[in-house]
Specification:
5 strands; about 120 residues; Alpha-Beta Plaits; five-stranded antiparallel sheet; globular; about 35% helix; alpha+beta
């Protein structure tokens, strides 16, 4: 998979004070993007896209990586980094209407979406 992170993004600059090493909760999702929608998908789901602009409003959000499969031209995975599951759940509850509205707007971009899983970071010893 190749990374589609844009190091110059405004959202990344705003979150640069949040060290990636501090995250403890990760949500991974896989998307099959419709033919011809790849660039639009990358813009919306990338490190300076609509989803990041929604997430960045919460100080418990650490960033998103968008990765693209080398095996399938239209397979993408998002990695969303949060301080904790509780922080993410609170964010979702507070921003549910905006989250659902954006999700609905993005439905036309994909053939399928599935959650790969939710993960917690293993602390260093």
């Amino acid at each position: 998979m190749t990374s589609l992170r844009d190091g110059k993004s405004d959202a990344k600059d705003r979150s640069s004070k949040r060290k990636r090493g501090e995250w403890a909760y990760l949500i991974m999702k896989e998307f099959q993007v419709r033919p011809g929608m790849e660039k639009r998908f990358e813009k919306i789901y990338g490190s300076d896209g609509d989803w990041v602009r929604l997430f960045i409003q919460d100080e418990s959000y650490f960033g998103t990586d968008l990765i693209h499969s080398l095996d399938g031209a239209r397979t993408y995975v998002t990695l969303d980094f949060w301080r904790s599951q509780q922080a993410y759940d609170k964010f979702r509850k507070r921003q549910l209407a905006k989250y659902q509205a954006l999700d609905q707007q993005c439905e036309e971009l994909t053939e399928s979406e599935r959650e790969i899983g939710r993960f917690v970071r293993v602390p260093s010893k």
